[in-house]
Specification:
By secondary structure, this protein is of the alpha/beta class. It is built from 14 helices and eleven strands. α6 crosses α7.
Length: 380
């Protein structure tokens, strides 16, 4: 069966980070994603071999010089029967390229125009450059992460780029597509990473305001609690414990050979540092695999901390098919899963401009017109 977004047409203007990831999610679900790559990229050695470019899988590529005065007309022609436009430039760039929202709506009133930035379309930082770590820093999220005795570490680029960025962009786009089908009108989705991350921080801002959130590394889910965190094992590996609820905590103490009667109360924060040190010493007496055997059958909320090489081989990950072999490499399996219209891996990432002629012909350009676009340096 085709994916749930089969029939949805998306034009993605080449960008980095959240935009191509959002496009890949939508493409996995069956959308026809046409990526417009930079003309300068044609013929250049890619920074990443195409089969490893997971964010561009399931897409086709057209190469255009968007700075050329004639390029906007080509994009507008493609947008006439598109459902979504994705762009991740700084504010004002698509306007200068002749692809402002109102210009695009003039050729397709039902278009959903998805804009992805770090700082947002408005505000004093809107035109600033930045990366994931900067957006995390401004929202308060980065300050809340990591040990208390050293600077906060960046948690990869999962939180701002992908969680607060791509996921919110996809959510907004899908909601707008549903609304457009009833109203007949598209709209602009202004997805900013600082908005998404702040939204993700909702519970922690609530905790802070009601007085239940202390400083960094002093709370239940930030490593402060002895029953919620990671511990080193005898073989230099790590385990993760999440025994937050009282029944799970009781099960943890049982496995550790400790009696609750001889310990401070689970909620006694003043005793957490001492208790964590006690737990850490016990966990160092066995290997990671030995602890996994010891935890089996007990409701502890336990998992081994696996490396990226180990995770695909783990029995549960294999049983569920969390990774899929495709194009001679191992991909994360498309998520989420659909019972009737599954998301699928259909094609590897294209090289820039790989489908230029095919796309332009389908859009109604003649072979002579395509040759003219090439000669003018607009398409490649």
């Amino acid at each position: 069966m085709p994916g749930p977004l089969s029939g949805i047409k998306i034009i993605e203007l080449a960008a980095i980070g959240p935009v191509p990831f959002a496009g890949a999610l939508l493409a996995d679900m069956g959308a026809d994603v046409l990526r417009i790559d930079r003309l300068q990229a044609v013929g250049q050695a890619p920074a990443l071999e195409s089969r490893y470019d997971f964010y561009n899988r399931n897409k086709r590529s057209l190469a255009l010089d968007l700075k050329h005065p004639g390029a906007a007309a080509v994009v507008l022609q493609l947008l006439k029967d598109a459902d979504i436009l994705l762009e991740g430039f700084r504010p004002g760039v698509t306007e200068r390229l002749g692809l402002a929202p109102e210009t695009c709506f003039a050729v397709n009133p039902r278009l959903v125009y998805g804009r992805m930035t770090g700082w947002g379309q408005t505000g004093p930082r809107a035109s600033f450059v930045g990366h994931d770590i900067n957006y995390l820093a401004l929202t308060g999220a980065l300050h809340a992460i990591g040990p208390a005795d050293r600077p906060p570490p960046p948690p990869l680029n999962l939180v701002a780029d992908l969680g607060g960025g791509a996921m919110y962009l996809v959510t907004g786009i899908l909601a707008a597509i549903i609304e457009a089908r009833s109203s007949g009108q598209g709209q602009v989705i202004d997805a900013a990473m600082i908005d998404g991350v702040t939204n993700l921080m909702s519970a922690f801002y609530a905790f802070r305001q009601n007085g239940s959130w202390a400083g960094r590394d002093a709370n239940i889910v930030d490593g402060g609690a002895p029953y919620y965190g990671t511990f080193e094992t005898k073989d230099g590996k790590y385990i993760a414990i999440g025994a937050m609820e009282p029944p799970f905590y009781a099960a943890l103490l049982k496995v550790l050979g400790l009696s609750a009667d001889s310990l401070p109360a689970q909620s006694d924060r003043s005793a957490w540092p001492h208790l964590r040190a006690q737990f850490a010493a016990i966990f160092l007496t066995r290997t990671r695999d030995e602890w996994e055997t010891s935890m089996a059958g007990h409701n502890v909320c336990f998992a081994p901390v696996l490396t990226m090489d180990e995770a695909p081989q783990e029995p549960h990950m294999q049983a569920r098919g969390v990774f899929t072999a495709f194009d001679d490499v191992l991909h994360p399996t498309p998520a989420p899963r659909f019972s009737r219209t599954p998301a699928t891996l259909r094609r590897g990432a294209p090289t820039p401009g790989e489908h230029s002629d095919e796309i332009l012909l389908i859009a109604g350009f003649s072979e002579a017109e395509i040759a003219g676009l090439r000669a003018a340096g607009i398409a490649g």
